[in-house]
Amino acid sequence: MTQLTIVIPAAGASRRMGDRDKLLEVVDGQAMLRGVAERALAVSDTVIVTLPALDHPRAQVLEGLELRLIPVLDAANGMSASLRRAAEGVPGGTGGLLILPADMPDLTADDLQSVVQAFTDASGEFLVQATGADGSPGHPVIFPADLIPDFATLTGDEGARSIVKANRARLIRVALPGDHALTDLDTPDAWTLWRANNPTR
């Protein structure tokens, strides 16, 4: 197992889905959030999941997994709230922080391992960002340990883009198959299209 800490931000309100929760949509026979968490655990034994609350239905679908669940009471302030809280909980000795969005069902454990391997090959000194097969920047992204304190400064709903931008000279990109690094499902229409293209899932 790598010494990376994986963070799955899952505290958002999923407002664009109406009365549905995108992270509880069933993919491969289980809630999407649980599948993402299982894939994270396949490449790291330190996985943090941020949640709206510890009694939220999202927490229930994660029961039985060895995860660290962190409630984010100010999640309405945007993705930055989740990332700040998660970074506070990163254990000492962590070699880097991998941010894994919870709404990307096409990312596989092999995809995550490819990104982790690139980080390891670069001696943990560089940021590593996954891209689509066409080179379009996507997720996940790994941040070296020396940049974890910068998460405390994040604001708004743009995640850690400001950290990536400020450290472009240290950025390595790794192409993943197809649109694995790009497909996120935020709306009912996006889900309908994805299910039409993936009828067996």
Task: Give your account of this protein's structure.
- The protein is an alpha/beta fold and 201 residues long.
- It has a single domain (5-197), classed as Spore Coat Polysaccharide Biosynthesis Protein SpsA, Chain A (Alpha-Beta Complex).
- It contains six helices and nine strands; from the N terminus they run E-E-E-H-E-H-E-H-E-H-E-E-H-E-H.
- It has helices at residues 32-41, 57-60, 79-88, 109-121, 161-166, 188-197, and strands at 5-9, 26-27, 30-31, 47-51, 68-71, 96-99, 127-131, 137-144, 171-175.
- The strands form two sheets. Strands 5-4-1-6-8-7-9 form a seven-stranded mixed β-sheet, sandwiched between helices.
- A hairpin with a 2-residue loop joins strand 2 (26-27) and strand 3 (30-31).
- The longest helix is centred in the middle third of the chain and has 13 residues, at 109-121.
- It is globular.
- The mean pLDDT is 94.
Read across the widest sheet, the strand sequence of neighbours is 5-4-1-6-8-7-9
Strand content: 15-25%
Could you say which structural class the secondary elements and strand pairing correspond to?
Answer: alpha/beta
Task: Please tell me how large the radius of gyration is.
Answer: 16 Å
- Number of DSSP-assigned strands: 9
The dominant shape is globular
Order of helices and strands: EEEHEHEHEHEEHEH
How would the blueprint of this fold be written?
Layout lengths: L4 E5 L16 E2 L2 E2 H10 L5 E5 L5 H4 L7 E4 L7 H10 L7 E4 L9 H13 L5 E5 L5 E8 L16 H6 L4 E5 L12 H10 L4
Parallel strand pairs: 1-4, 1-6, 4-5, 7-9
Antiparallel strand pairs: 2-3, 6-8, 7-8
